[in-house]
Amino acid sequence: MPDPVFLSGDRVELRPIEEADLEFLQRHVNDPRVWRAIGRSKPLNRVQERAFFDDVVCSDESIQLLLVAESTPVGTIGLQSIDWVSSRAELGYWIAPDHQRNGYASDAVERIVTYGFDQLGLHRIAARVFACNEPSRRLLESVGFRQEGVHRDVEFIDGEHQNAYWYGLLEDEWRSETA
Q: Is 157 among the domain residues?
């Protein structure tokens, strides 16, 4: 029986991450094409992936979903560091390399932003993108995120320090763009 769909998109379905998904997550988060783009330079073993599942996926300060296209897991997306008092969260996502450039991330970002503003009552969603990940910067801008600042030389990836660009989207900006 397929796992329940939480949010349906045009290209992907977003469903809760389950223990059975940990192998997929560990395999892809250790792929250099993924860990470089998300600013992670250390490998993740099964115990650490399990800790991520227990501490982040199962947390009340996070909503983590698996992207599924035609019954195949293709990536993850989530709202983390949710601050319920200030009504804000940080968006994070990645797509497995063999499934990139199919519109899955765009579809998922649009769905989770809509969910964040309409269902969670968020006022602000932020996102961080590394300088080496230009496609993600374009994606955020296409949804309406605005670059707000740069953390210079914040991560050490591939032998050099990388800048992180911070983006933000306010609920009223998003509503005016989607109207």
A: yes
